[in-house]
Structures
1.
Amino acid sequence: MDSIIFDVDGTLWDSTDVVARAWTQYLREKEHMEIEITSQKLMTLFGQLLPDIAKALFPDLSEEEQLRVIDACCQAEHEALLKECAPLYEDLEQTLQKLSAEYPLFIVSNCQAGYIEVFLQATGFSKYFKGHLCPGDTGMAKAENITRIVDDYHLNSPVYVGDTMGDYEACRKAGVPFIFASYGFGNVPEPYAVIQKPMDLIPLCISHS
C-alpha cells in the first residue's frame, strides 16, 4: 500500500443535517416549494451523482429544471457549511495527521464542483491531502476519477476508504481495494477490510503502530 483515497460524506464527516436545512430553506424561500429535505433522506441519496439526486427529489420537474434547482441548492449548501462546519467523525484529525505522515492522502467524491474545497476550508484539513477529484471537476464518475488520481500521481497500490455500495462498485471497476467505513451511510457485502471509526485505519495501514 502506497497511498489512501477517501470519500467525504459518511467517511470524513456527516453533513446531512446542515445540508438538509440549507436545501429546505432555499427551496421554500427561493423556489416556493414546500418540500422538507431530511438528513435521513440525504443519507440514502449521498454518494449518487448529482443529476440522479435531483431526479429523485424533483421528479415532477423537467431535467433542465432539476439541474438548475439542485445546483442552486448546492450553492446554498456551500454557504451553510462554511458558516457551520459539519460534524467530523471521531478522532478524524488525529487519524489524518498520522496517516499523512506515512502516505499521500487524496479525496475522490461523487459531489459537485467546489464541495471538496468547502470541506477542506471548513475543516482546515488541506494540509493533509495531496489532491482531489469529483464529477463536478471532470465530468467523470467515481471509478474514472479514482483511476485518474492513480494515474496523475503515479500511485502503485492505493486503497480507497468509503461507506456506500457505489463506492465499493467504483473501486471494483478501478481495481482498487475497498476499505468499508461501517459507521457511514451504506452497507457493503465483501470489502477488503472494515473499520468502525477512522482511527481503525492506523493499525490497519501502519504496520509498525
Note: The chain has two domains: 3-14+87-205, 16-83.
2.
Amino acid sequence: MSEQEKNGKMGKGGKIAFAVCLVVIVALLGVVIFLLFRGKDEEEPKRRNVVVNEDNVDEVLESIAEEGYVPPGYYEVTMNSTWNFESGDAPSTNAYVENAQTNTNPVYFDVVREDTGETIYESPILPVGSHLDEIVLDTALEAGTYDCILTYHLLDEEEQDISTLQLTVQIVVNQ
C-alpha cells in the first residue's frame, strides 16, 4: 500500500492546507459579523436644531466651531429681528427677510407665536438672492408685542426639506 492510501485520501500536506483554509474562512466570517454589528452600536445620535437668539448666538457659534460640524445646506441669515406693523392686517413697515446670494439653497419660513403655537405667517419659497419685505401676516393680530419663532426650511433641488433653522422674532402691532 502507498503512503497516501494509509493516511486516507488526503496526505499530511492536504490536511494542513484544509485546516489553514478553514481558519481563514472562520476569521473572515468573524470580521464580517463584527463590522455588521459595530455599525448598529455606533450610530450617530440624532441632532436637534437649536433656537438661536441674541442671548445665545455666541454660545451656539462657539459650539459649532468646537464640533467642526457644518450642516448640509449651510445658511446665512439676513433679516431683522423686530417687525413693526401699524395695524394687525397692514403690511410691515420694516420686516425684511433675504435668502442671501451666498446661500446655496432656496428656503421658505413659518412664523409661530410662542404663547399659543399658532402659525401666523407662511412665506412663499425664496430662491437664492431673493428677499421679502412689506410682509402681511396671514393672521391679523390685536395691538401688542408678540414673541415668535421663525423657522427657516432649507430645500433641496426637488423642494424637499433638508434642514431647518429657528430664530426668534418679535412682532409689534401698534393699533
Note: The chain is about 25% helix and 30% strand.
